[in-house]
Amino acid sequence: MDRLIYTAASAARALMQRQDGITNNLANASTPGFRADLVAFRAVPVRGEGAPTRVVALEATAGFDERSGPVETTGRNLDVAVLGPGYVAVQAPDGSEAYTRGGALQVSAEGTLVTAAGLPVAGEGGTLNIPVGTTVNIARDGTVSAQPATGAAQTVGRIKLVNPAAADLRKGDDGLLRMASGEDAPADPAVRLGSGALEGSNVNVVEAMVGMIAAARQYETQMKLLQNAEQNDQRASQLLAPAR
């Protein structure tokens, strides 16, 4: 009897986690450069005396969907889209280096090139500082130049572009990608940017909605199994109760 309870309860918990993942994906269906989370589970035996035949479902690290999202032309000079594989390096709030596909850049009040979330964009020589009163242009190789109202343009620096393998990256709760080893990924000169365009989220809304409905129905099934287990336990107690 308790085997059924273990199985149904752990499956219900796993399905709730799957719903959380799908909900997060749907919430970011319009976030530029967002990579959909992949949720997977595996069955593991329960450790402990008297429980070698019990199993529970635990979340397994499945990573993220590395497929590119649709690219939309915006015409804005600070919008960039990574063309093909690769990522833009940024400085995370804790000071570490992280990676993103979100290319909606802007210039902060301090004159630093930052992401839409306010994170400084990492240059190959440090942060990229934009002179006041200049127009920013970003080349395909990530080179950032500032064009004043009069005179020649000056090169500010080059955005650090990386292309580590997806298996070497881990996605954090903040949506940023980091190297699993904790080290910084090396710059890859082959990564290219498209200026005046943004890459959209790679979340398939229809697929996510179907997955949410399926998870909800599976959750209801596990709840029914738990109810059946409780009813069977009550009936067994009645049958085994001593006659009066």
Question: Care to give the gist of this entry?
Answer:
The protein has helices at 2-27, 205-240, and strands spanning 37-45, 55-64, 71-73, 80-83, 87-91, 97-100, 106-107, 113-114, 122-123, 126-127, 135-138, 143-147, 154-158, 161-162, 169-171, 177-179, 192-195, 197-199. The protein has 244 residues and is of the alpha+beta class.
Q: Largest beta sheet, briefly? A: 3 strands, antiparallel
Shape: elongated
Q: Please tally the helical runs, counting DSSP H or I stretches of 4 or more residues.
A: 2
**Rg on CA atoms, Å:** 25 Å
Poorly predicted runs are: none
What is the succession of H and E elements? Answer: HEEEEEEEEEEEEEEEEEEH
Give the total of beta strands.
18
Instruction: Classify the secondary structure makeup into a structural class.
Output: alpha+beta
The spatial strand order of the largest sheet comes to: 6-5-14
Compute the average pLDDT. Answer: 88
Terminal Cα span:
26 Å
**Helix share of residues?**
25-40%
Count of discrete structural domains = 2
β-strand amount: 25-35%
Family: Belongs to the flagella basal body rod proteins family.
Protein name: Flagellar basal-body rod protein FlgF
Domain Flagellar basal body rod protein N-terminal: 5-35
Pfam family, one: Flg_bb_rod
